[in-house]
Amino acid sequence: MALRTLIQRSPNTFHISMAATSALFGLTMSPTFVPVVFTLASLLLYAPILFNRPRPVAYTALLWISLSLGSSIGRLVPAVNALSTAGPSVAVLLAMSSLTSAVAIFAVFADVYVCNRTGGTQAVFFPAIWASLWITTSHLLPLGRLTSWTPVSGAQSYSWLSPWTGPAGIDWITAAWAVVVSQSIGSWYMGYSEDSSLETGRRKEFSRSTGTLVLALVLTALTIPTFILSGFPYPLSPPETATPLVVGCALPPSSKFDGPAPGLDDYIKESRMIPARIVLWPEAAVSFRSDKDRDNAFLHIQHSIPQRGTYWGVSFEEEITDQSDGSGDTSIRRTGLALISNTSVHHMTYYKRFLVPIAESFSLSPGSSPPPIFTLPQSKPPLVPKGRWGEPTRPLDVTASICLDFAMPSLFRDLDSRPALILAPARTWDPAIGNRMWEEVRQRANEIGSVALWCDGGKGGVSGVAGGGYNDVFQVGEGSWSRTIGFPYPFDSTPTFYARFGDAFVLAASWLLVFGPVALRLAVSRSCRLATSDACPKYFAAVEIRTTPSRPRQLDSRQPIAGSFQLITSQDLPIRLDDDSPKKSESSFIQHPSSRPAKPNRSPHPLRVCIGSLLHRFKSFARTFLRKRSRDGALTDPHSTRVESTGAPRVSEYNTPLAPTPSPPVEYRLVNTYELNASAASSVFEPEPAPPTPASSSPPSPSWLSRNVQETNPVLNFEGKRGPTLSSPLLSPLDNSANGHLRQLEPVTPSSPPPSHSKETQSADKRSSESSSFRKADDHSTAKPPLIPSSQSQYDIFVPSPPDFEPELPPLPADLWTLINIINSQGGHLNNMDFTGKQHAEVVDFGGEVDYSGYEWFQEPPPKQPPPPQSVGTPYVPLPGVIEQNEAFEFALGAAPNVLYARYKQYGQLGVLAWCSEFGELIDNLKDLGFKGNMFVATRTQALRTCEELLKLMKHSLELKMQIIVMYLSSQVARLRRFLDGEKTWDDYPEPQFPLDYTKKYPPPAGEY
């Protein structure tokens, strides 16, 4: 509840902060699945709010800046080290982050805009537009998938989709999960109405929640193949079905060479020590100044390979003459890879096609040829018997790409077959970049069903075998290594589904989910119209005229509303209906029992229709038809009967009236004006069912009947609930304006009416019973039953004494009280007084005395007064609102000391002064709760405990130098204590530290008194 209130009070601050925070943790160099989902969910939740708030452009710009900064922070360190100076690197990073953030905001806003105006389904539209935008940006931007929000980690449960959908499938799933999360949070945030009258809203809410649940189940079901399919690498044995291959990476450590970087001889020496059939060098391992230097180096490498069947993947950087320049003075530099063995230097050559912006794009030239394929003959390993190997060699297709090439989508779309191994040299400048490129290489290898040998020569670079079940990094940093991997035999060289079609399948499938249902509905409705075209009425003025009444609504499928309709026949109307109009011949107007019109006998040829005759007959028919509808509109309900014309009206037919037929029953809407009033008096007074007769001879309309209801003289109603007793204290209902559906009209228990009003009450009851007789016997009451608390536990109520600040009346004099007691006493001592004086007395007595003669004193004890009967009443069960209000007061009182201490730490003594005013408002509300009889004993106990804690806090933890604040806070505590326990005396208040004797502390100067 507190979080929902916080969101409702500050939606802009909350949603922008959540989006920026999620982007900070999720949009790093390697985006993570869950934070990206929550980032999109926060945007989906915030977009509808932003559209309906003032200044949407300003808040959109603020959201854009927050997302750009949040996504840039996680990539700041790798970007700073990309170039020699940090300024251009940071500028490029901010530009790319701003562009991708704008793409994300555009996707979210487009989804909300379209779905709100077309009623489309967000569950399929947002994933479609999200996947489409990132497919487009990855093909247009120079960094490819490196700038996208596609998760590269945390989505391993959907890794089996890579050969089918590629990264676009992960984008679709990410957006779909964001829709599920946003709609789930939105349902909790918005809530729903419990009112049964809002049936349409409840059905819509149920439909939305059902769609979200179905989408969540589908996304969960897509993870099932991960638990079924094997994600392990292919085994190395048996040799009949497996082809083992030893691969390695040459990374000479710095201790083995002199200088800043290893040279050609260092790489040759390191490669000869690796026991592998394929050895890969990192990107740009050696450099050549000309074509001649390159060819000489390749011959030297060829002669250095120790044995036959061993291949070295040499990555180089060369400077050659630009052939496109006719002068021959311009040279270009490019990065390439050559596969060399001891038999040839031209097995395979590939040049890097995609360069790093600014860092490489100004100094290097990209290649233009797609990756080639070389079929490597794999000979029998030494430890495998000849009989188990079969053929002397087994073919394995090998291809290559370099570093940033793997960030581009559809990298190997030009290959005609599936390669078994991909040579992937690289040289990254930061470990975060190396890890991200490792994830991209693994994704590309899984997409085409191959295995990639990744060799990163950068500082802190990661190396290993990716794809085909190999998902872990083998080594970080420098140092050569080798590893044996296995391939199935025979190897299936058929390209995967994604390698054949690329991202086109995901685009087509995602938009088919959007427009497929719409097209299906249109096709079904069109086929239905075509199938029923013979039965559909048409206007052909040259041959016949048919009227098409509106299609009757299926009223039987709806639940009737009590008191909304009342069946009224022509005999029940206050005046007689008009005479029926002359009937037409049966060939002209026929009342069909079925709602479907009959099939026409023939269809006119359009060429036979004369334009002038068509217009003339159409106008005459319109006038006749409207005149007929104006007369019979009040008699025939369009929802109950269908009257159609099966033949063309003729002049002779209008002159031959038929015998009048009984008019069918007509339904009029009965409107009760008292039921439209929300006051409680509508359940007591009923209108007299005797409306005046209208002046017109036409049947009275329902609105006329509702307006002309005879009013009754209001009679005072003395019936009501029983008054409170000692056993049931008087309770005031809480203000439930926020929860209006909980306030009901409870049935009252009538008490015996006073004698002076018995006649009025009886007459009111009589009129109420007479008016209720006009209602149907099967009317269902629309009022809800009274609210009954679910818990039957008893609660103790604290009834406070009258406040001491109320004025008291002065006491009466003692003589007046004595006189009142003597007058009110019955059978007192006055009955024994002898006012005539004593008889036979020797003295004269001027006053009568009490005659106590014969009275026996102290003989019997006075009779004991019977104890007052204990009141027996029903246990008090408070309303849920009373319980909730007491719990809120208990929570506020319990947190009061902590809040006071926090205000003191934040604002000092002025914070305490401001808090005292808030505490005074809390005391006023608490006293109001007590005077209404709704305070629990637990609430009173907590309030007294809070007073003690506040005074202890003021004495020991708060250094209050301003004594007026001490006095103000003490007075607030004393005011609350006087209300809760006015008879007790409290002595724990702090004493003000005023300098009362100022002459001692500040003596007067000399010479003054």
From TrEMBL:
GO MF entries: N-acyltransferase activity
Listed GO CC annotations: membrane
One example of a Gene Ontology biological process annotation: lipoprotein biosynthetic process
Zinc recorded as keyword: no
UniProt feature, compositional bias: Low complexity: 724-734
Biased composition (Basic and acidic residues): 575-586, 632-642, 757-782
UniProt region (Disordered), positions on chain: 575-605, 632-666, 682-810
Start-end of Pro residues biased regions: 688-702, 800-810
Protein name according to UniProt: CN hydrolase domain-containing protein
